[in-house]
Target: cysteine-S-conjugate beta-lyase
Amino acid sequence: MTNFKEVIERKGTRSVKWDFADKLFKNEDILPMWVADMDFQVPDAVTTALQNRVSHGIFGYTLPDEDVKNTITSWVKNHYDYEIEKDWIFYSPGVVPSLHMLVQALSEIGDNVLIQTPVYPPFYSVIKNHGRHIIKNELTFDGERYDIDFEDFEQKIKDNNVTLFILCSPHNPVGRVWTEDELKKMADICLKYDVTILSDEIHADLVLGNNKHFSIASLSEDIDDATVTCYSPTKTFNLAGLQASYVVAKDKDKRKRLERQFHGQGINMLNTLGLTALEAAYKDGEQWLIDLREILAENVAYVRDRLHKETDTIKVIEPEGTYLLWLDCRKLGLEHEELKTFMQNEAKVGMNDGASFGEEGKGFMRMNIAAPKETIEAGVERLIQAVNKREA
Ligand SMILES: Cc1ncc(COP(=O)(O)O)c(C=O)c1O
Model:
């Protein structure tokens, strides 16, 4: 059984989070709480399946067969209440590569593409890199919670003739799990103006407490036709290095476009070990995921309670999903560059820079809490010490 309490040395594994942190944060004593992977081992069933596959010793070309397709359709049905057919599925090494391909497949050069900011940084590059333009529907923030400005959402689409909307659901970095009602409202506006919805649902399984994730495509036949969804087991089960994900598209015309884009770029397979891990995780990872969610909820509560009790200046935005905590550090009174320097040199906690998610993220930092309690405690302690020293 996975021991979520055990601290496992990741340095020396070429881990982006641990082995490349010193360079990024220019500090050898940094505690990495940044890039979105977890410091937990995967479900035992996944390790065993990988070991069995590795011991075969031959790693030629592999393709998902009917069994794998059935495993995927069952997961999507059971977890997102979304009935999909096997030939709606496309395979890809990752959601980011998919977003790049999908922007090209579903819009034209020069088109305007809507995103809700602050948002996961590649949302900007997948638009800009392919000659499309970014249109922002900024999320509103009342100091506690982020919401959607629907009026602005519709106006931006109308005024800019937007053709594609990239939805982050659940939302990284603000931690919102969009409600059925919010999703329906966004979808209705998209349908009204004939906007294609590209829904990145990589965090779909990582919902906290009583929050429920809805796949936007599942809400009606019409919305399903207007939507292409990206899913992946890699965030859920900590498999990012194995690179395996999939895209679901119901509408025939969209599937034709995807076919041309994916196959045209030689992408139609899954990495052998990624495929093995995906199948094992989806078949036998359920209990592990239930346990993980509890640990994440405990970590959120721990960080929030301690920071709010022991500092007046860092506010945790309560997440409904994801293992990424959005910290409002504006009360520290630092310019954004000063805040970054303070976090890396004084607190020595390696977090994602809020401004990398967009202008709206200035004064914020993103903390990854998918780690054993001991690591979380050490990170929070460092933060509190640094803040209190500064304010003394
Ligand atoms: C919203 C979102 N999409 C995509 C990714 C990365 O996907 P992949 O590793 O499959 O490219 C992340 C990782 O943090 C993410 O938060």
Observations:
- The CA atoms of residues 326 and 366 lie 5 Å apart.
- Residues 286-310 form the longest helix (25 residues).
